[in-house]
Amino acid sequence: MPILTTQARRIQLQDNLNRTRQALSEACADAGREPGSVRLVAVTKTFPADDAAALVELGQADLGENRDQEAAPKAAELAARGLEPVWHFVGRLQRNKARSVAAYADWVHSIDRAPLADALDRASGDRGRTVNALIQVSLDGDVARGGAPVGEVGSLAERIAAAPYLNLKGVMAVAPLGWEPAKAFALLAECSEAVRRVDSGAAEISAGMSGDFAAAVNAGATMVRLGRNVLGEREPMA
Ligand SMILES: *Cc1c(COP(=O)(O)O)cnc(C)c1O
To answer: Potential cystine with 206: which of 71, 120, 135, 223 (Cβ 3.0-4.6 Å)?
Structure first.
């Protein structure tokens, strides 16, 4: 990425944000949905705290991160500047990171097993907070890439619904490599029904990334997680 002045980067982010919001509105219109019915989470991973701060100042309230070692200092830096975005943790989460994540995350999209749910519940309680919880589903059953098997979504939903410091909100998935996005997100919509049988209010569906968000919106996504569309291409992750 070329080095830009702070002001030039800000203008670029504003442009990207405008274009992304416009594309999201069009996807909603194409799907016959209200433009305000889908929440945009801007995924700032690999980008500096300055970019995250600029987005918040441009009115983008929801930010996503996928690694605690990057997210925790970024959240602290924004807080030190008096900026309090709604932080969404969207990446693979180890149990021993639950304490750290519970300190700043308002939403965790990647709860995929009972011991992790329990650890996050305890950590949130210790921090005097309640975290909004989404169950990440492994749509193709390749759980090594994260997510609970489709058949375990109902029982995990019951576990989270019973956790005092977790607020069961719905489901999340990444479309498996090589799958038609429409097929992936239709399966996720079925998983959402299983969660709503446990708690009818847990209707959030976090689905759709820069390459496939229109298909996700068409299949009922209530949150899209967009990185490259808003921030630009990332350097390869270490
Ligand atoms: C990086 C990431 C995104 C955003 O991906 P883009 O292709 O940059 O839009 C969304 N969800 C998760 C879980 C991610 O790790």
So the answer is: 223
Termini Cα distance of the chain: 17
User: Of 108, 80, 8, 99, nearest to 51 (Cα)?
Assistant: 8
Helix residue ranges per DSSP H, 127-152: none
How many independent structural domains does the chain possess? 1
Contact 16, 40 (CB under 8 A): no
| Residue 64, beta-bridge partner list | 43, 88
User: 217: which 2 tokens?
Assistant: 């919106």
Pocket test for ligand 1, best of 39, 134, 209 (most atoms within 8 A of CB): 209
Bridge partners, 171 (sequence order):
135, 205
Given a contact cutoff of 8 angstroms between Cβ atoms, the answer to whether 118 and 139 are in contact is: no
Reported as a single tens digit per residue, the pLDDT across 157-205 is: 999 999 999 999 999 999 999 999 999 999 999 999 999 999 999 999 9
The two beta strands, 166-172 and 204-206, are parallel
Mean pLDDT, rounded, for 39-45: 98
Tell me, what CATH number does 19's domain have?
Answer: 3.20.20.10
Kindly tell me if the per-residue pLDDT of 124 is higher than 60: yes
In a domain, 94, yes or no: yes
| 184 in any annotated domain | yes
Q: Tell how far the Cα of 90 is from the centroid of ligand 1, in angstroms.
A: 8
Domain-embedded: residue 152: yes
Structure tokens at 55: 């987005």
Model confidence at 21: pLDDT above 90: yes
Q: Tell me how far the alpha carbon of residue 106 lies from the centroid of ligand 1, in angstroms.
A: 18
Ligand 1 pocket member 227 (CB < 6 A): yes
